[in-house]
């Protein structure tokens, strides 16, 4: 049984998740705080207890894109800790956060426990699968369907983060997440709002009809 609500927590037993949540130092962070920057040395991993972050990757030409959103029960910064390479993306908080900041050596020792190693491997493979799914969606699905799937993922993340059915995400960030233009996302959100599926206020998106989103997502 998992003690967490998603991410790595869903792959660990309750005692293992509790043990992970005792590592390092407990820290609170406000929204729009940068945990680390792409290219930084990977000397710590971050275990998310509450809140949500976005992972952004930039290219030398000056463009960037959101790779994913992570919420409670997940970890970020772990890959650089495990392989010794630089940070592959920039991670910033979307909401107020509570995290455990875990030194790299402590995180690696924990992951090297036999039962945790197997769980972490499954978790890492699932993240790769999800990346493949999202790339395929961008290549072949219409904007409305991509948006519905992204909103469902964000709904799950928001629920895990304690925000229930609402989350804050700028429309430009949402556009980057699904590989669409901001104008296309604005139009699609307007249609969903008119249909009573969502409500929007400034950066906040509230999910009103999860079943309708599932039907649109296919």
Automatic annotation (TrEMBL):
<dbReference type="Pfam" id="PF00027">
    <property type="entry name" value="cNMP_binding"/>
</dbReference>
<keyword id="KW-0805">Transcription regulation</keyword>
<protein>
    <submittedName>
        <fullName>CRP-like cAMP-binding protein</fullName>
    </submittedName>
</protein>
<dbReference type="InterPro" id="IPR000595">
    <property type="entry name" value="cNMP-bd_dom"/>
</dbReference>
<dbReference type="InterPro" id="IPR014710">
    <property type="entry name" value="RmlC-like_jellyroll"/>
</dbReference>
<dbReference type="GO" id="GO:0003700">
    <property type="term" value="F:DNA-binding transcription factor activity"/>
</dbReference>
<dbReference type="GO" id="GO:0003677">
    <property type="term" value="F:DNA binding"/>
</dbReference>
<keyword id="KW-0238">DNA-binding</keyword>
<dbReference type="Pfam" id="PF13545">
    <property type="entry name" value="HTH_Crp_2"/>
</dbReference>
<dbReference type="InterPro" id="IPR050397">
    <property type="entry name" value="Env_Response_Regulators"/>
</dbReference>
<dbReference type="InterPro" id="IPR036390">
    <property type="entry name" value="WH_DNA-bd_sf"/>
</dbReference>
<keyword id="KW-0804">Transcription</keyword>
<dbReference type="InterPro" id="IPR012318">
    <property type="entry name" value="HTH_CRP"/>
</dbReference>
<dbReference type="InterPro" id="IPR018490">
    <property type="entry name" value="cNMP-bd_dom_sf"/>
</dbReference>
<dbReference type="InterPro" id="IPR036388">
    <property type="entry name" value="WH-like_DNA-bd_sf"/>
</dbReference>
<dbReference type="GO" id="GO:0005829">
    <property type="term" value="C:cytosol"/>
</dbReference>
């Amino acid at each position: 049984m998992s003690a967490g609500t998603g991410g790595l927590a869903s792959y660990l037993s309750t005692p293992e998740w509790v043990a992970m949540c005792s590592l390092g130092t407990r820290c609170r962070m406000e929204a729009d705080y940068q945990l680390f920057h792409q290219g930084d040395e990977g000397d710590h991993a971050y275990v998310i207890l509450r809140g949500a972050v976005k992972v952004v990757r930039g290219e030398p030409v000056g463009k960037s894109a959101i790779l994913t959103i992570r919420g409670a029960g997940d970890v970020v910064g772990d890959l650089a800790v495990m392989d010794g390479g630089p940070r592959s993306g920039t991670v910033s908080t979307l909401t107020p956060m509570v995290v455990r900041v875990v030194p790299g050596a402590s995180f690696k020792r924990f992951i090297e426990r036999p039962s945790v190693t197997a769980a972490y491997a499954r978790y890492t493979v699932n993240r790769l699968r999800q990346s493949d799914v999202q790339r395929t969606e961008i290549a072949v699905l219409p904007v409305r369907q991509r948006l519905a799937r992204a909103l469902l993922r964000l709904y799950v993340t928001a629920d895990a983060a304690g925000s229930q059915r609402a989350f804050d995400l700028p429309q430009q960030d949402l556009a980057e997440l699904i590989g669409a233009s901001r104008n296309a996302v604005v139009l699609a959100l307007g249609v969903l709002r008119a249909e009573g599926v969502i409500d929007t206020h400034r950066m906040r998106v509230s999910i009103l009809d999860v079943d309708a989103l599932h039907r649109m997502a296919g």
